[in-house]
Design brief:
single chain; alpha+beta; GMP Synthetase, Chain A, domain 3; 3-stranded mixed β-sheet; about 45% helix
């Protein structure tokens, strides 16, 4: 399945706006044929020691909501294979990612409903 680049850009812009309150953002650096999306932090987020938490709780779950995305890589953040497996299986319920997923789904649903007007 191919990634809908328009939806991907929309989600990246949404996540970037959400983390802008911290003086930073994210930008797309690449997309592979296999569905791996690569992004990097911008602004104040580049030097933040909490980048891994932001990547796991906000960026990764948001981008995984886009059809065709199979993996997310964030420059400067290394997630173990074990953590990726747990996240994919929904085993780490301590992660507060439900809120970001709800925001992304609502945004994509609203986008879909208004894109035909």
């Amino acid at each position: 399945m191919r990634i809908d680049r328009e939806k991907l850009d929309r989600v990246i812009n949404l996540v970037s706006r959400l983390i802008r309150s911290h003086g930073g953002g994210i930008e797309l650096t690449g997309v592979t044929e296999e569905g791996t999306v690569s992004v990097r932090f911008t602004g104040m987020c580049t030097g933040c020691e909490l980048k891994p938490i932001t990547a796991v709780t906000a960026i990764r779950p948001a981008l995984m909501e886009v059809d065709g995305v199979t993996d997310v890589q964030v420059a400067g953040v290394c997630l173990s294979a074990e953590l990726k497996t747990k996240l994919a299986q929904g085993q780490d319920s301590a992660m507060p990612q439900d809120h970001i997923i709800r925001i992304v789904r609502d945004t994509l649903r609203n986008y879909h409903e208004t894109s035909f007007v």
